Amino acid sequence: MSRLEARELVIDVPGRRSGQALSFSIEPGQVWGVLGPNGAGKTTLLHTLAGLRAPRGGQVLIDGRPLAALGRRQVARLLGLVFQDRQDGFPATVRETALIGRHPWLSAWQMEGGEDLRLAEAALERLDVDHLAERLVSTLSGGERQRLAIATVLTQAPRIWLADEPTNHLDLHHQTAVMALLAEQAAEAGEGRAVMMCLHDLNLAARWCDNLLLLYPDGEACWGPRDAMLEPAALEALYGQRLATAEIDGAPVFVPVR
Ligand SMILES: Nc1ncnc2c1ncn2[C@@H]1O[C@H](COP(=O)(O)OP(=O)(O)OP(=O)(O)O)[C@@H](O)[C@H]1O
Questions:
Q1: Looking at ligand 1, which residue's alpha carbon is closest to its atom 3?
Q2: What are the structural domains of the chain?
Q3: ipTM (interface predicted TM)
Q4: What does residue 143 show for φ and ψ, rounded to 5 degrees?
Q5: What does the record give under GO molecular function (predicted)?
Q6: What is the pTM for the complete model shown?
């Protein structure tokens, strides 16, 4: 079990005055969504929580220990990040790429073993890219790449998931499948994981997240249980966009109004 905590955290958005200090804790079993318009700082927040960017102030802690005090390998075992953008570093197949998820668990020159391969194959199958295992990543479609990125983190098997727009490029079926996977990671009996994701789709957030953090372009923020945060007037202010609201299957649905 691992909990991820932001304590008086001030993220460093270049060229912007320091925004609100963020103090929240993502508990095992919880699924948090980060909402906000383009440029609000969602990716910056996720990268700061992952220890890839220094904050202007405050701390990130895992199970009460400052991230800065943990080694990179230990962080990589505990925390997985699905990036919004990715480049092909060198030619690699889909299977080889998924296996990169095992690197935090191997020593410097250790080759992946049978169990690593089994985990990678299971993750590729779960993300519906197992039929592409021999293909070069450079030949994949946008949605296939996105599913491989998630399969790679699934192979890594972290206790904490940070996902930057995990449904980017995905068709409706795969959007739902990925949200179900992330919810399942959080809910897993006995070993629930802490999950936080940035989302642009309010309706996915309303359906799948239990806590929401709203990030405004001026650095202000608010967070809390989903139902309290899905206030139409607050969401309209967040996006500068009028919304119509309905309820389907017990969950609110938001539609932009022209
Ligand atoms: N290296 C950098 N140099 C200058 N500005 C930067 C840099 N990195 C990020 N920014 C700026 O910081 C702001 C926050 O960026 P960030 O990627 O966190 O936003 P976001 O909320 O994830 O946006 P989006 O919804 O478009 O993905 C943006 O205005 C961006 O242009």
A1: 14
A2: 4-89+156-256 (3.40.50.300)
A3: 0.97
A4: -70, -35
A5: ATP binding; ATP hydrolysis activity
A6: 0.95
